């Protein structure tokens, strides 16, 4: 039954993608972030993302939907970053595996660019936010309930065969999405809806803690600091945060506290020392190779050449050192530049849209995007999620939001007339079509 329902939903998205490609891009995002077919019995290996992505690209050119090909600093920088990854590809140290990962990253970045072309309205931005929240919230709320029922004695893991199947990776994804849930809550009117969202956010935070990820704990701390700093009443905000933190941390078992305490004594922790060794390897490789080593360098062969400890082989465990080792110093510069731009674009939304009833929602979005970015910047320092879609969807929301505000789209969506029709023509059209003209 589960497979049949999923097949019907994906089939509908596939058909709609030809006529309304913005629906296709939302469906592709859902598949890419959540991987719902991995929860099925017989559909796990079906190429749904490729099918919907292809239908969306066809719809991009044949449909009459509005499209926006305007350039801005974010999409130009992303395209330059993609070009740089194409330039570094021939210099990859392990070609076959690097080429496979390069194709995956190019697909992701291409669809991010397509998303910025197709989405343009408030409705689109709200739906994209809901897709991101549902995709990760499904696992986060379930993981929070699991942590609550088991007293945190077992780790929360992500969905298998995805970018976030590890405990650390799913924790960072959860951390990034919590501020987006807060944004949606700020737009809600019904008390019951706000209460449900509050419960979901608490469970999400509990799931992040239940992952036993030290990076997630630091990311939550960074986000809490940004939220507190942005709050109007800092004293009340501090008290609320302390109460919530104490309540959540009191649920965690002794082994969780022992693991978190290794943050202070990282010199004696093998996992932490392994990460530092991987960072050292990435630094040495980038110094010796202007174009980096390619997408697949975290192997014993490469560590034997560039690793401070050649025998201690680890994954990058850092978005920064991952890009540095794979794409060199130029690639790291472009990566940092891109997300710095997103940070300031979100900040511009927060300040420029503030105070007007029609645009206050966009100010709320900008503020929460910055909170999510703070979590990604801190938590990502210890995790290998440099190319995953979710952070780049924050970029999409910031770009589309600034474009929407700059063009005063809120005037259109406020049902104010854009074309002033002659009165006799307006009445005749509305009588015939039963559709009011603007």
From TrEMBL:
GO MF annotations, alphabetized: ligase activity
Record localization: Membrane
Record-annotated membrane-spanning stretches: 43-63, 75-95, 101-119, 126-146, 166-184, 196-229, 235-254, 290-308, 328-349, 361-384
Keyword Zinc: no
Pfam families: DUF5935, Wzy_C
Domain (DUF5935): residue spans on this chain: 1-186
Keywords recorded for this protein, A-Z: Ligase, Membrane, Transmembrane, Transmembrane helix
InterPro entries per the UniProt record, alphabetical: CHP03097O-antigen_lig-rel, DUF5935, O-antigen_ligase-rel_domated, WaaL-like
Membrane topology designation: Multi-pass membrane protein
Top-level taxonomic group: Bacteria
Domain spans labelled O-antigen ligase-related: 200-336
Signal peptide: none
UniProt KW Membrane keyword: yes
Name this protein carries in UniProt: O-glycosylation ligase, exosortase A system-associated
Taxonomic lineage: Bacteria, Pseudomonadati, Pseudomonadota, Betaproteobacteria, Burkholderiales
């Amino acid at each position: 039954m589960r497979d049949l329902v999923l097949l019907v939903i994906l089939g509908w998205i596939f058909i709609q993608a030809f006529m309304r490609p913005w629906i296709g891009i939302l469906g592709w995002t859902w598949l890419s972030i959540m991987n719902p077919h991995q929860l099925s019995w017989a559909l796990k290996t079906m190429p749904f993302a490729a099918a919907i992505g292809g239908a969306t690209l066809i719809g991009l050119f044949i449909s009459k939907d509005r499209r926006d090909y305007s350039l801005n600093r974010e999409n130009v920088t992303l395209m330059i970053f993609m070009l740089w990854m194409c330039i570094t590809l021939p210099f990859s140290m392990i070609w076959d595996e690097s080429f496979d990962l390069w194709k995956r990253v190019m697909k992701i970045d291409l669809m991010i660019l397509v998303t910025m072309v197709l989405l343009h309205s408030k409705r689109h931005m709200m739906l994209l936010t809901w897709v991101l929240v549902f995709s990760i919230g499904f696992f986060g709320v379930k993981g929070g309930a699991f942590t609550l029922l088991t007293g945190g004695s077992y780790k929360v893991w992500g969905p298998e065969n995805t970018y976030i199947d590890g405990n650390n990776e799913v924790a960072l994804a959860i951390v990034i999405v919590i501020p987006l849930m807060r944004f949606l809550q700020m737009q809600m009117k019904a008390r019951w809806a706000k209460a449900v969202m509050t419960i979901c956010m608490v469970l999400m935070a509990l799931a992040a803690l239940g992952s036993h990820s030290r990076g997630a704990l630091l990311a939550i701390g960074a986000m809490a600091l940004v939220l507190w700093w942005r709050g109007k009443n800092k004293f009340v905000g501090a008290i609320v945060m302390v109460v919530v933190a104490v309540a959540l941390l009191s649920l965690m078992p002794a082994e969780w506290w022992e693991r978190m305490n290794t943050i202070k004594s990282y010199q004696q922790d093998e996992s932490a020392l392994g990460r530092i060794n991987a960072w050292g390897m990435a630094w040495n490789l980038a110094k010796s190779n202007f174009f980096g080593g390619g997408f697949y360098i975290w192997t014993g062969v490469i560590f034997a050449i560039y690793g401070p400890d050649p025998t201690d082989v680890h994954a990058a465990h850092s978005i920064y050192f991952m890009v540095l080792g794979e794409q060199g110093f130029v690639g790291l510069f472009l990566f940092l530049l891109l997300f710095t731009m997103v940070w300031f674009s979100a900040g511009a939304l927060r300040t420029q849209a503030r105070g007007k009833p029609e645009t206050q929602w966009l100010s709320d979005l900008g503020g929460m995007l910055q909170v999510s970015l703070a979590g990604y910047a801190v938590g990502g320092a210890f995790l290998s999620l440099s190319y995953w879609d979710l952070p780049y969807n924050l970029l999409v929301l910031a770009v589309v939001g600034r474009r929407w505000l700059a063009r005063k789209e809120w005037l259109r969506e406020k049902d104010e007339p854009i074309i002033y029709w002659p009165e006799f023509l307006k009445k005749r059209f509305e009588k015939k079509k039963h559709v009011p003209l603007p």
